Each structure stands twice: as structure tokens, then as C-alpha cells.
Amino acid sequence: MNKITRLAMVGIASVGLMATMNSGASAAPELKAGPAAAQDWGGGWSDVRDVSIREKPSTTARKVGTLKKGKIVKCWVAGCSAVDGGSYKCTSNSPTEKRWHEVNWGGKKRYAATRCLEWGRVE
Hints:
This protein is about 20% helix and about 35% strand. The protein is built from one helix and eight strands.
């Protein structure tokens, strides 16, 4: 096989590979509705302390569980929405905060104090 034939074959193979790669990459990922979509995005965790999970975004709301140090809680929806709620402090000398993340706790929408957790992509 001469050089020109080999170059032509490599070029054709490259075009085919690029077409295959582009066809999958151009399709936007499907977003699922409701809490399942959160698993595609992320959640929260703390490597420092346990964090209370509440029924509503307030420290006076019923505590429904505790996210243990080092564990992950998934967000309720993709993008991890947060709402304003009651005031809290993560530690006695931290500033007062009012933002709460909506999380999936036992298949129900519950709330975790935003500033007491790290937030990001989790698997």
C-alpha cells in the first residue's frame, strides 16, 4: 500500500470517528422530573460535623433525621434549590444564616442548613 492510499484511509477513518463522536455529544442529556433528577446533579455533605435534617426550613421545625459526618444527602431537584427560612448558626461562633437546601430524605422533600454542608456533584 502506498503513502497516499494509507493517508486517504486514515483520513476516512478519522472522519468516521469524528462523526460518531459528534452524534452522541450533540444530544442533550434528558432531565428527569422530580427528585430523581437530583441524582444527576448532586448533594451535600460535611466532613466536620453531623447536620440535622428538618421537615421545614427552620430550626424550630421537626427534626426528621441526622446526616452523619462524611455521609451524603441528595438534592431534591437538579440544581439543588435553596429557600429562605428560619435563622441558624452552624457553630456557636459562625454567622447567622437563613438559607436552607431542599434535600431528598427518605423520598420526601426535607431541608438542610445550607452553610453547614458542602454542596456539589455527587454520584
